[in-house]
Structures are given as C-alpha cells and as structure tokens.
Task: structure prediction
Amino acid sequence: MAPSSIPSNGVYVVLYFDPGQSFAESLADQRTDFAVSFQATAVGPTAEKCRWATQRVRMALHAPLTVSGRAAWRPEELGGPPMQRDDDVSPPLYYLPVQYRLQSTS
Result:
C-alpha cells in the first residue's frame, strides 16, 4: 500500500506487522515475554534509492529499544527475498522487503 502522498524523491518504506505473540515465562503461565515480527518494504524509483532506504531502516533500528518496565532486544534482521522491479506500475518501481523480529520481557 503506497502512502497517500509519495515523497518528491519517490522513496518510501511501508511497515507490515503481525499481531505479535505473548509467551509464558514458566509453567505458572505468566505471560511476560512478547515477540512481534514485521516487514519493512523499501520502495524506490531506482535500485540504488531502494537500497538507500533499506539502509536507513537498518540504521534507525540499530538504536537500543527502550520500553518502560521491560527489557527489549535490538530488532533481529531475518532477511527477505531479493530486490524486485515492478514493471506493472508506471513508472516502474523497485521493492526490497526485509523482515525483522522484536522481543521483550518484563
């Protein structure tokens, strides 16, 4: 889904999140652990601009994640399919989806 207003440079990133999952820390079934996966899909008019947007996402996600009352890990990059060119849109666009996982515990 493209944003309602595409930036003048034609580069943007769309985030797709799954609903997440809570996990029990022990047999007492206290659900204190949480994990969520998401995909950051970079879109650009050229392969170079698409890679640039992907690198900006990586840089933004590298900072430590702070959640009040919880310990959180840095996002784990899970990879994704290779960059693709979509010739079904005019002008053609490049897409590069990268999947990540976030985890935290209280």
Q: What stands out?
A: The chain has a mean pLDDT of 89. The longest strand covers residues 31-44. The helical segments are 47-62. Residues 47-62 form the longest helix (16 residues).
